[in-house]
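fold description:
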Amino acid sequence: MSMPKGPQPFPRNEYLRRLSAVKAEMERREIDVLVVTTSANITYLSGYTSKSGYVPQGLIVSLKNEEPTFFTRRQDAPAALHQMFIERTRVNGYPEALIANPDMDGFDAVIDFLRDNGFARRQIGLEMNFLTHRSIEKFKTRMSDATIVDFTNGVTWIRGIKSDLEIAVMREAAAISDAAMLRARDVIRPGVREADAASEIIATLVRGTNGRAGTDLASFYVCASPRSATPHIRWSEDVFRNGSQINLEFGGVRHGYVSPLMRTLTIGKPSERLRRLHEGEVAGMEAALAAIKPGATCSEVAEAFYSTLRKHGFEKDSRCGYAVGIEWTEPTASLKLGDSTVLRPNMTFHLMLGNWIDEDLGYVISETFRVTETGAETFSRIPRDLFEIYV
């Protein structure tokens, strides 16, 4: 007897709505079948979040079938049976003989399926952005009578505008981020190892809050003195000390959706330069949030931040945010000068104001927000303070 599926993060009709939007784009581009290869887009269209993308896998979307078909490594197929909304017969596990094989791999199983189901001479969409040159050539060679169309970011652009159900899940993820930041403020003390503090914060990200657990771990960074001018250090075996600065970046996760959060803490009184930077960054954040509305561009939001920060005597040489959702970053839009992407309701972004000025000065603060009908809704409830810890 087969095991029943576990609870699904979204109802079936939500996934069918997403597939319908993708199929409309396929029809517009005269594509008969689409091979989705990126993990985040597979999650979006099916609910699958298992970490099996280290080997070839593909979600096949056909105009003639309501549900997609999935190919993955045989040992990962049971995860798809539990997590995907699709019928069990549409989950295919390719054999272990295709793993670490110098001549064939899982994409051969996908190609065999396409050939066997009448697509050998049709228009085939393929997400190419994370495929190797060898994999792309395999599709072109083995499907030589078909027309291979690059569908890179086609699904990603569609998922850029969230449904109300997705927004609700991102709010849940944000509540977990907040709980973890509050836990960080409680456990960071002089003499405490960075690793021990990290374990407590991570435990909160997993445990969750309000009865909703974290369902994954996303990027997690603890950049403490003397490494506070770095952006992407996990933690060390060092201890926090009086005078330490700690820059934190992490995000709660719910069913693949992330709501990132960044804050800066100091043990004791911060330097005057750090305090001035904090004041400038918060002013810039408020200016950027005030500039957000449907019809505004990403560039206009960025300009509001940069010009305000400049008035406080500081510059930031990196972008000030990016589209966010499944698996943290969505590679479609950036809050940076020159990005003409027009904001629309229910787009979601990480307004990421981390600023690594020189080898001795770095600072972080951020908000995850959605574009509303009139402005912006930030998901976090954590104050935009420079947290000072005194013991």
In short: The first strand starts at residue 33 and ends at 36. Residues 180 and 201 are 5 Å apart (CA to CA). Residues 164-187 form the longest helix (24 residues).
